[in-house]
Amino acid sequence: MTSRLKNGRFVKKRTADKINNALAGISNAKKSKVEIALDGKDGDKIPDENGIVTWKVIAKNLKCTSCRSLLDLEKLYEFKTGGLHSKFKIKCDKCAKLNKVNSGVKTKTVSDINSSVVLGAIHSGVGNTSLNKILACANLPQIRNQQYKRYEVIVGKAIESEAKDSCKRAASEEKELVVKNVKKLCDTL
């Protein structure tokens, strides 16, 4: 018996099943790396790793969006990390609504903590591998290479822009000093 793969190729059904099972396994493995679905008893749901939080953001977000009651971290339902930024869902005790909570400030797709850490890595002259070694020693989530590169581009543009502005300020300051001290310069030459 033959079967058809997604690319249109004919193969034996048994081979097609093996390929489909392998693809499903790869897909599930990728999902489990990015998202950790938490199940079990209360207290077991909380991840066993350190994290970085912005206290004002956590304090603001630990209130239910519908009934405004305080949320209990032990009612953690889902936990995702994107580098050092974490997102999680907590179930409200009163209204049973799932609330999304961020561990820090995130604007669109850019996390403040991730961009700050990548900026620090660039300033100190280390790359993603060295940064991840430091994070691993602190039991913090690591930053994937693609994510590091994405933040490196964002931070690099900001560094370049600031460097250009600094050069323009220095040039105009030097020009002012020359104009101001032109008589002294003529006398010394």
From TrEMBL:
Residues covered by the Mutator-like transposase domain: 58-182
Superkingdom of the source species: Eukaryota
Pfam families listed in its UniProt record: Mutator
Protein name as annotated: Uncharacterized protein LOC124294614
Lineage of the organism: Eukaryota, Metazoa, Ecdysozoa, Arthropoda, Hexapoda
